[in-house]
Predict the structure.
Amino acid sequence: IKTGEGASTEKPHQCSVCEESFLKLDDLNIHKPYLCDQCGQTFTHFYTLKTHRSIHTGENLLRCSYCGRGFTQKTSLATHILTHTKEKPHQCSVCGQRFARSESLKKHKRIHMEEVRHHMCECGKSFPDMKRLEVHARMHYKSLEKKYCCSYCGRMFLRDGDLKSHQRTHTGEKPFVCAICGKSFAQSGNLRVHQIKHTKERPYPCTVCDKGFTTSGSLKVHMRRFHTGEKPYVCSLCGKGFIVPKSWLFA
């Protein structure tokens, strides 16, 4: 049947239970033809209606051996029994705290996710507490002592040059000037990267596909993403790996 300018009113998708027809298959799939004659609630599948009816009739309910309360689902009964036994089978792998329900454990882990954001090493690795971060940091610096202290923020450095470079983030000093465009930089390395934009030089070539890059860091990311598949930055909570540091915070 067509009306207007070729518009079709045909509804080719028919429900085999109530014979109601639908224009779209998606509408048929979400259709709920099974009606509970006790409360009027509708269901997509008959077995769901049958399970639901047990609430009204009291038949075939799964009974709690402690209080006699009835449930239609085994999982609901199992969760309920924990309120009697006080058992907490779900344990947090970070702090060891235990929970009766898996949903409660998932909610709890979000606390650690926030904590991890504040316990990240400069190398990109994160840790659930400051103590583990400090142990990891010693692996970088070993027995070296940080002698140079920033008078602005108190941060310590191994070398005087590192301290001076850091202090420019406080003073705003930019002593390294591009001879071509006059733009200035706080770090000499940033100036070198900038100058490549003028010369179009790409000193870091990929040994696999010969594509060139302006920085070694860009080359490393390229190799991991397209050739090696390496993901060295791993979330300490779920174990998921990432190509670049800190990207897991937004995953």
In short: Residues 247-251 have pLDDT under 50 and may be disordered. Residues 102-117 form the longest helix (16 residues). The chain is about 35% helix and 15% strand.
